[in-house]
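LOG
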Amino acid sequence: MTNLPPHLVSKLAMLVLGAEGGGPDQHVYNHPFMKTADGLWLWSGNVGNLVLSGIILIVGGLWVASKVKTGPESQGHDRWITTNRFAHMFEVLAVYLRDEVVKPMLGDRTNKMMPFLWTVFFFILVNNILGLIPLLDLQHLISKDMAKHGTAIVGGTATQNIWVTGILALIAGIVFNVAAIMRLGLMGYFKHMTGGAPFPISILLFIIELIGQIVIKPVALAIRLFANMTAGHILLAVLFGFIGIAITQLGPVLGGTVTIVSFLGAVAITFLELFVAVLQAFVFMFLTTVFISIMDHHDEHGHEHGHDHAHGHEHAHA
């Protein structure tokens, strides 16, 4: 274990300690690539991830659409069959999200809101998965200069960045508030927040609901995604860090034992993180749907049931 070539030992140690010697969290956090003279970041690893995810979604989306679209009439019944199994998986997922998750809550507004909700889900999902790929470490293995200065063109976990999750939450907040105003009208939007309570209780309820609509709900969306992606990715980095330490600093017996245990643990956590990556994308989209649905008209007999149903979903995933 200790007879590895010196250059390989050095690079492994760099991966263990992080690009700036700060520990395993450096594999998750954002790293700059280009700065102005004043220290303003013009490009960073997270920016690279966001651009890469956009390219993946555009190119991948066009490819999936080409495989899912209805063929010419000359194909008969085969014109309705998706021509690729991978594309069919995304078709099934998209249809499930629309018909089984969103439609029961949004009803007639489902088709209008689905482009936004699908975009949110797949954008977060792609970025969550990109965060599991060691793009940052690969760049630092290849380039000594980038490893020395802790820079990265692409890498890290964009959905771990509170600024990224904050912007996503801000956009979601704008959408579910604008959707409510378009559905209820401006006066109906404000009246809905009073819950029909008499004055002066209605004033207190209005203030609480307004704060919830424009502050608490978006902040909760941002912090939930940020915290979940940070914790899991750092844990995974720590386990791989143990492997690096075992290879570079421990003897054959102890180092081999630590390496095997850490590797098996890392594999298990990787599968868990893949599940969390999908789950967190789903939760963000689901809660955005709930927030849209709870600001809606209800008929006289179905008001309480519909409102309680939406709130029940919200509490179940709080």
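LOG (cont.) second protein
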Amino acid sequence: MMGITWIIEGDIKGYFDNIDHKIMAKIVQERLNPDRTLMGLIWKFLRAGYIEEREFKHSILGVPQGGILSPILSNLYLTLFDEYIDELKKEYEKLPISTRNPEYRKVEWKIGNLKDKLTRPKKRTEEEINSIKEQIVKNSILLRTLPSAIRIGTKIHYVRYADD
């Protein structure tokens, strides 16, 4: 992966267990605009509770693990985050990623001038010619050590997936 400076991986620990029901209901209402019956079923699904060590526990947070709607609701919940990242990407895409290195350009220009000196119809001694050639070699070596461009911007690639 050439040119990649950062890779950030994140994991939302206990994501399914900590989804806020009220926020989830608000998102469902705004995005899907379900009728009252469907919204009632979604609320029942969210509040169904669970059994732990033979005891029924009420659920006030989270979506049921393994529930058929859980992945859909979880993705819907993270859609706002995805949209935020998309806006961030658009902002960064407006900016240039790199620009030519001015130091590199100066050395290039210097090499070009030295080569021009060799081709101009002026009588030069062998010592002058060798000196110019030596300077060309020295600057060419220097040129190889300099980056031709300077990174000034960022490009964002975003991938979200669920593994639980």
